[in-house]
Amino acid sequence: MFETILIALGAFSVNVSISVAQLFLALLIVFSAVKLYKTKDFTVLNDWPAKFFILMAASQLTSAFAGINPSVSLSAVTSTWTYLYLFACMILFDGKNLNRVLAAFFAGSILNAFSGIYDVTITGMERAIGYYTHALTYGNAAAVVFIAALGLSFFVKFKDLKLRYLIYAAAVLSLIALIFSGSRGPILSTLLTVFLLSIYLYRLKAVAVISVLVVGFALFTASSPDFRKKLMTDRERQVGTTSASSVGTRIVLWKAAVKAISERPVFGFGSGTFKEYVDKNVTELVLSKAHAHNSYLHYAYSNGLLGLALLTGFIVSLFRYTIRRSKEYPPAKAAIFVLLVFLLEGLTENNFGDSEVVMLTMLLLAVLTARVGQNKNL
After folding, report:
1. Which GO CC terms are listed, alphabetically (predicted)?
2. I want to staple 171 with a disulfide (CB 3.0 to 4.6 A). Which of 40, 149, 220, 250 is the partner?
3. Distance CA 268, CA 298 (A)
4. Reduced to 3 states, what is the DSSP secondary structure of residue 17?
5. Dist. CA 322–CA 338, nearest whole Å
């Protein structure tokens, strides 16, 4: 029971405070280690997602020592521990108190959504950030929450009406928050995920559903000059002729990452060194240099093609596990699309290295794919 309370508190905190979320993660790791010691049940650790994650951690350490700045890389590698939300919750959570954990999660997400909406409508901020550090982080998290709420609304008919309405409210408010974030990558990832979800649910009827969404989005954009201005910023900055734009910056950094990977293809340059490489090798003016704005290229830059292969193995094995669970546990069907939108976001942002988004997503995946136990309220 106490473990469930910890997970519920973690589920709430991943939406509102990274520091508190990390505190609960540390506690969950301790409790999961104690449970493993007592039960000697290593089922989670013997499954392929955990095996690939352990290999990824080893690869990151190797790349850190073999990279261009080991002290910086070793410090940066520590952020990987946020992925342990996935395995700690897998070990501790049996699904019996799913309603309580989801209620805490979506209550936190609603609070965060209101905070972001307040940013734009009351304080006059150009882009919503809520309780997070950046509008892109906020947009990536809002997209994950929206897809989770949408998926659960379709796949699980909760007997608890309060929870059902809480999920509906979270879906609506997180979608508004996503739009207010002005983050095009997460918005496009969400649209594509909704399209794939519609195909899964409705087959040919999905075309009509997506058409309604596209028309609705177009009408909203046309009726909102401020939002249209945010979406058209790159056009106004003459994308294609300058790197000083969101898209232009990404193109320059993607090219730089590909060039860097070709220079050190096996172990890469080590985590936390991308800005150092860009400073030395990129002459174009760019808006940011911290990472490659593509999770896959950035991971390959940091850990080489060997690391990228292990990351691919982790993703594939996690997909297979989630699909396998979806045949027995309805909430896992929503988890498939949560994982999908998270991976799509990685095409335009380094969300794999964003602790706030990682903790939120990994906790959700673990909770929605609980291994044992039955919830009579489903």
Report:
1. membrane
2. 149
3. 10
4. coil
5. 10
CA-to-CA distance for 283 and 125, rounded, in angstroms?
A: 32
C-alpha closest to that of 190 among 342, 17, 354, 19: 342
pLDDT tens digits, residue range 296-324? 999 999 999 999 999 999 999 999 999 99
The SS3 of residue 283 is coil
Other beta carbons within 10 angstroms of residue 170's beta carbon come to 28
Q: What 3 state SS string does 311-354 have?
A: HHHHHHHHHHHHHHHHCCCCHHHHHHHHHHHHHHHCCCCCHHHC
Instruction: Give the whole-angstrom CA distance, residue 344 versus residue 163.
Output: 28
The residue extents of the domains of the chain are 2-201+322-368
What is the token pair recorded at 274? Answer: 């991308």
**Closest of 301, 310, 292, 311 to residue 261, by C-alpha:** 301
On whether the CB atoms of residues 90 and 28 are closer than 8 A, the answer is no
CA distance 250 to 297: 11
Residues 236-250: tens digit of each pLDDT? 444 444 555 778 888
Report which secondary-structure segment, H or E, holds 72: helix 70-77
Distance CA 294, CA 212 (A): 30
